[in-house]
C-alpha cells in the first residue's frame, strides 16, 4: 500500500489537510477524511481539501469534505488555503485564479510579497435569503431575517442566509464568548427546519465590526469560518447594524468581508503549517487506502 503525502494549512485557525491529486486519480474516501481529521489519532483538521485540475476550464477544482467526511459545497477559508498551496507547490505563478467548487466557480486574487502569500481575496458570490435557496423549512420564496428562533427553551433573534451553504446567524445579547456554542450549535445544526443541516454563527456587533463564534456543519466549533464570516456580515448589514465592509473577528483571527452590489468578498490569510507523509502501516491499520 502506498504512503500518503499531505500538507497542513490554516486560515485564521480554520485548518485543513491538503492532498494534491492533479490527475483526479484518488477520490476522497469519507473514512480517510474522518481518520485524517481526528485530532487525537490522526493529523487533525476541520476538513480535507483535494486539489485537482478542473474539468470545466478553471485553474483548479476544490474537492472539500468536512471533518466527519461529509461533502461541503463551499469553504471560504479552505479556498484561500488552496490558492496559497498552489503557489507554494509551484502549481501556478498566477495571482488571479479561478477555482471550481460545488457552489460554482470562484475568482481568487492573491497578494504576494517576495514570493510569500500575504493575503487572499475570494469572490464568494451573492448571498441568498429565500428559504428554498438556503434551504429552510417554510414557503420557498419567504425569507427569515431578524426573526425569533427558539432552541432549548431560549429564543434568539436570527437570520437565515445561504453563502452556497446554509447558515443561521444568531444575534446574541451577550459576548459570544459567554454563549454555550457547543450545546446550542449542534442542536441547530440538526434542527429539522434545515433539511440539509446548518452552520450556526453567534454574533455581536462591537466597534463597527462583528465578533463571532461558529459551529460548522460536519466539523463542530471551529476557530473561524469563511462562509460563516460572509453570512455574519451580510446578516448584520441587512439588519442595519454594520456597514457593507467590516472585520469579522473569530477566536482564530479577523477576516475582512465586503458586501458589494454583485457579491460578497472575503479577504484573509492562508498559512502553511507543515508537510508530512502518512505511513502505509497507519493506513492499513484502519483499512484505508492512499
Which key features would you list for this structure?
single chain; 290 residues; alpha+beta; Diaminopimelate Epimerase, Chain A, domain 1; 2 domains; 17-stranded mixed sheet
How does this model look, in words?
With 290 residues, the chain is α+β, with helices and mostly antiparallel strands. It folds into 2 domains: 137 residues, Diaminopimelate Epimerase, Chain A, domain 1; 116 residues, Roll (Diaminopimelate Epimerase, Chain A, domain 1). The protein is built from 5 helices and 17 strands. It has a 17-stranded mixed β-sheet that branches. The longest helix is centred in the N-terminal third of the chain and has 13 residues. The radius of gyration is 18 Å and the shape is globular.
Summarize the biggest pleated sheet: 17 strands, mixed
The succession of helices and strands, N to C, reads EEHEEHEEEEEEHEEEHEEEEH
Number of strands: 17
Number of helices, where a helix is a run of at least 4 consecutive DSSP H or I residues: 5
Structural class by secondary-structure content? alpha+beta
Distance between the termini: 7 Å
CATH architecture group name of the largest domain: Roll
CATH class category of the largest domain: Alpha Beta
Radius of gyration equals: 18 Å
Amino acid at each position: 500500500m502506498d504512503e500518503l503525502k499531505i500538507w497542513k494549512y490554516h486560515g485564521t485557525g480554520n485548518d485543513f489537510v491538503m492532498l494534491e491529486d492533479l490527475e483526479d486519480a484518488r477520490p476522497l474516501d469519507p473514512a480517510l477524511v474522518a481518520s485524517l481529521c481526528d485530532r487525537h489519532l490522526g493529523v487533525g483538521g476541520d476538513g480535507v481539501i483535494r486539489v485537482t485540475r478542473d474539468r470545466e476550464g478553471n485553474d483548479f477544482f476544490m474537492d472539500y469534505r468536512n471533518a466527519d467526511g461529509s461533502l461541503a459545497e463551499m469553504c471560504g477559508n479552505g479556498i484561500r488555503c488552496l490558492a496559497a498551496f498552489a503557489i507554494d507547490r509551484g502549481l501556478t505563478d498566477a495571482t488571479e485564479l479561478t477555482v471550481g467548487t460545488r457552489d460554482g466557480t470562484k475568482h481568487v486574487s492573491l497578494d504576494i510579497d517576495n514570493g510569500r502569500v500575504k493575503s487572499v481575496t475570494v469572490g464568494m458570490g451573492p448571498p441568498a435569503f429565500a428559504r428554498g435557496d438556503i434551504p429552510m423549512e417554510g414557503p420557498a420564496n419567504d425569507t427569515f431575517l431578524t426573526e425569533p428562533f427558539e432552541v432549548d427553551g431560549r429564543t434568539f433573534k436570527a437570520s437565515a442566509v445561504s453563502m452556497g451553504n446554509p447558515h443561521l446567524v444568531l444575534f446574541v445579547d451577550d459576548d459570544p464568548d459567554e454563549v454555550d456554542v457547543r450545546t446550542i450549535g449542534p442542536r441547530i445544526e440538526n434542527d429539522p427546519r434545515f433539511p440539509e443541516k446548518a452552520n450556526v454563527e453567534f454574533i455581536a456587533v462591537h466597534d463597527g465590526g462583528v465578533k463571532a463564534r461558529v459551529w460548522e456543519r460536519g466539523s463542530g466549533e471551529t476557530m473561524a469560518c469563511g462562509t460563516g464570516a460572509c453570512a455574519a456580515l451580510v446578516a448584520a448589514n441587512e439588519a442595519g447594524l454594520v456597514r457593507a465592509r467590516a472585520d469579522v473577528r473569530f477566536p482564530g483571527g479577523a477576516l475582512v468581508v465586503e458586501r458589494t452590489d454583485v457579491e460578497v468578498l472575503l479577504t484573509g490569510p492562508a498559512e502553511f503549517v507543515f508537510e508530512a507523509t502518512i505511513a502505509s502501516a497507519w493506513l492499513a491499520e484502519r483499512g484505508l487506502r492512499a
